[in-house]
Amino acid sequence: MAYLVIVVNAPNESINDFNSTAELPTKVAEGIQGCINALLAVEAGTLAASVQVTTRDTDPGVTTHGTNSQQNTYNHL
Q1: pLDDT per residue over 29-45, tens digit each?
Q2: Is this prediction's pTM over 0.85?
Q3: For an engineered disulfide with 34, which of 21, 27, 51, 75 has Cβ 3.0 to 4.6 Å away?
Q4: Position 7 in a domain
């Protein structure tokens, strides 16, 4: 199994900013599109951020941390 891990560090954004656009547990398509939109904004230069991309063969085990931090899994296996 392969994992693609993408970490976006956007120092001018808050957790709530990303919650409102990319963390939508009951709206899978909108949640995934929100993540895509954030990456497109970084690419376009409208979201100041650094991006780290890692490929690996094990689950990175990302956990929540910080006020209002949320996590959802969109499973389409």
Answers
A1: 898 999 999 999 999 99
A2: yes
A3: 21
A4: yes
Using DSSP's 3-state secondary structure scheme, residue 51 falls into strand
Work out how many domains the chain is built from and give that number.
1
In a domain, 68, yes or no: no
User: Any residues with CB less than 8 A from the CB of 1 and at least 6 apart, and which?
Assistant: 57
72: tokens are 């959802």
When comparing pLDDT for 24 and 62, which is higher? 62
Instruction: With respect to residue 52, please indicate whether it lies within any of the assigned structural domains.
Output: yes
* Contacts by 37-40, CB closer than 8 A, 24 or more apart: 38/8, 38/10, 39/6, 39/8
For residue 67, tell me if it sits in a domain. Answer: no
Residue 68 per-residue DSSP state = T
Q: Angle at which helices 15-22 and 28-44 pack, to 10 degrees?
A: 120
List alpha helices for the chain, DSSP H.
Answer: 15-22, 28-44
